[in-house]
Structure prediction request, 1041 residues.
Amino acid sequence: MIQIKNLKKSFRTEEVETLALNNVNLKVEEGEFVAIMGPSGCGKSTLLNIIGMLDNPTEGSYNFAGHEVAGLRESQRTQLRKGNLGFVFQSFNLIDELTVFENVELPLIYLKMSKSERKEKVMAVLERMKIAHRKNHFPQQLSGGQQQRVAISRAVVTNPKLILADEPTGNLDSKNGIEVMNLLTELNQEGTTIVMVTHSDRDSHYAHRVVNLFDGQIVTESQNRAIGAII
Amino acid sequence: MIKNHLKIAWRNLKKQPFFTFLNVFGLAIGIAGGLLISIYIYDELSYDTVFADADRIHRINLDVKFGGTESQSAVTAAPMGPAMEQDFSQVELTTRFLEVGSLLIRKENDINNVKELKATYADSTFFKMFGLELLYGDTATALKDPNTLILTKAAAEKHFGIDNAVGQRVVLNDTDTYSVTGVIEDMPKNSFLREHSVFLAMSGTPEANEGNWGSHNFPTFIKFLPDTDVDAFQEPLQGMFGDYVIPYIQRYFPGITEEEFLASGNYFKFSTIPLTNIHLFSDRDSEMSANSSMQNIYILTFIAIFLIVLASVNFMNLSTAHSLRRAKEVGVRKTLGSDRSSLIRQFLVESGLITLLALVAGITMAMLSMSFFNSLAGKSLTIPFMNPWFWAILLGATILLGVLSGLYPAFFMSRFIPVKVLKGTGESAISDSKVRNLLVVFQFAVSVFLILGTLVVYQQLDFIQNKDLGYSKEQVLVVQDLSALGESAPFFKEQVRQLAKVKSVTLSSYLPTPSGRANTSFFQENAPSQEDAINMQAWQVDENYLSTLDMVLVAGRGFDPKITTDSTAVIVNESTVAILGVTPEEALGMRISHDIGESNPVYNPIIGVVKNFHFESLRKDIGALSLFLGTSADNMAVKLESGDFSKTISQIESIWKRIAPGQPFGFNFMDDAFDTTYKAEQNLGRVFMTFTILSIIIACLGLFGLAAFNAKKRTKEIGVRKVLGASVGQITYRLTMDFLKLVGVAILVSLPLGWFAMNKWLEDFSYRIAIDWQVFAVAAILAVGVAILTVSYQSIRAALTNPTKSLRME
Prediction:
């Protein structure tokens, strides 16, 4: 599903050029659950952003489901992203002015889905995430765990092929964190590919495979034998 | 999608009431101001368009240079109209007026007179010319016969209590009896006849039929046949000078030719002006109504555009500044698949919503301030709610305003890069404040410009009102309508003079306040050529005139009725002496005459030279003037001792009532009459000031919002600085200085522009102030002061914040 070859990303300020990613090669198969780990500033988020088509690489190739993404214009990336990708952020990034229902509905609106269809899908996913009773609340009226469940609902409501999670449990206590990881695992078991950036060893154990980044380069890759072993 | 846009827009507005208020209020002020000014301008532009065939009606203008004076007048000679009708096939119709001014009217069997402010003689073609119908009476006969008149409906009701006054008989000025032959609808408010209420049949005035080409008292209107080339008409029109005027001049200067007349530098030019241009483009002697000027329209248009642009700029500034709050939303929406155009549409919906709210608030403001605005502008305008065009234009303009104001913020915000804003580094994404700074500079430049303008207009007004006019207008009471006294005027004067608090009293034909007056040509003895003519005003005054009005003689003496030769003597002003080319002392004893060419001319010896005093608007230079000892009693001026005037006035009134029972007693103070001459400037000054204040308010709203944003953006920086030991004062200074620098740039930009523009405005005045550096200083200090007041509240508040609080926010 994802094939990254010799990928480089550099940031340029007035005086210095920083190499955030240096010759990264990565392959993610459909249905995989991959965790990306590494110290602060190693390039984890940059890599995730490129995989999520929010950013373009400086050099190298990125092939997503048969499409070459590197060098696409923003509008083209937006087209490709729509419906194929779901995002889960550390800070949830829900829109404060929209209710739970409206937040989850948003990606479907951008897919130009009819109103009745949208309602059906949103309600289904809210039921599943056990947050339907809060559908008319605004994000700030919810706990962190509830907010992240809404965010996950929003990420999966379009039935994306790939979910990208950027430290999804970073702002949650351990109980809510475990609940979120279980949800992601469940989704993965149903066939959704997941790429997750994390600092947490515990969370990384949910993944099939852990990729370690250091100074913009992949240093080790390891397979987790027992999936969900520590639940 | 639009529903989603609207929903989120509405919630956003509700969530940030302060920001919404600043935006809506600022825009509403702009809309209200723009609306009021537009209605005003629309009214000004509509003058005289109400008359049928207005596009074919023109007035004859006359420009003359003769006898050392130049004049531009709105009147021509009596035979001009009839001659044109006869000579030119293009001319369908002509109508002449002859202004009467104010008039006392009473019913034939009544002794009580009631005053009408404006009456005029009019040719019977009046109705056909202006497409007017009578409410009562027959237009075919109404103004035909001598001693007939028509009244407006309001005048008819005033005098007779009923509108149908046809057949009634009235006495004018206690002398002539007239029959009412028609009643007409009141003259339209936006027409040159708006104040006229009485129209007398022209056939009753001998002057109208005399064929005198040397006396110019008749406003003359012509109606061209359709499709007449008016430009091409100017040449044959000028031909009338040779055909009619030269033969008339030859009576006084036998054998003079047109070439000789022109060769001496004199001229006599006819031209036409379209009826619909008179109100805004004509500023001549003897206009039938006070006109406005296109310059004012330009200035107002300019102010209206400024107000709206300022409000729109405010909106852009506040919106982009506040976009920090929206950055996350933009990031999320983009991540979820929104494209840029959809975001742009969303922000446009928001700005549209704000503009719509502002429209409602702006119309409300305009309604509430309409009467204030009317008193400011001297009008009685209303908002044309029933006119569909009004709504169409207003809505169109509002949508345009919303789109224009919203477009920049929309493009600005939709450009946010999700990767950056979602990380919480939104500040860097929107820290580019160059455009915002530019907009603040623009707003303050406009404000400083308007402050400067207001100061200059007020200084000039003050200068005019306090200028040494060469006479004293303080504590001078003017008694009106002396004609009602008839022969008793000298007796009345004598009675008033004996009152305790009265210093002196004078009767005269004219007072030195602007009014309609004609020039007469005089010639020096022994030099009766047209080159040496002096064209000047000749007033009849009594022996108390100079002393009552504190006028100064620079040579010779005043009138003395005991000296019998003084009945033909003349006192001239310094301008006359200058035209004669002699010193005041040399002028004494010189003799002039105005009836040279007659068989037995009367010569007038100069016995005194009066220091120049202003008797026309200060826009004009002081012209030549001659004073004769006369018995004319059109005006009485009473110089009062200082103190309580009301008692003296009631004493004068009771004397009046004794001498002339039933006649209305009217008076005014000379300085008030003088001030009305500068009403246009005063109105302009007040309009300037009002809209200057509004524009400053708008600019301050914007600055206040920006300061709040800036303080918020720099919360962390402020916290760090405080932890490191910065004092509240230092931080306040730092935050305030950022804005003051912008205001400084604005001042540097706008002062030279303001200086240039206001000097242009001042050029219209013959007597004007020089703009000195203090005006610039005051404008700059005001702008800086207002900016400091606006910004410092936010700066101090931010500086006082506990640093642990601000650092925790990160």
Summary: Chain A has a mean pLDDT of 87. The first strand of chain A starts at residue 2 and ends at 12. The interface with chain B takes residues 45, 49, 52, 54-55, 74-75, 78, 81-83, 87, 89, 91, 93-98, 102, 106-107, 109-111, 154 of chain A (CB under 8 Å).
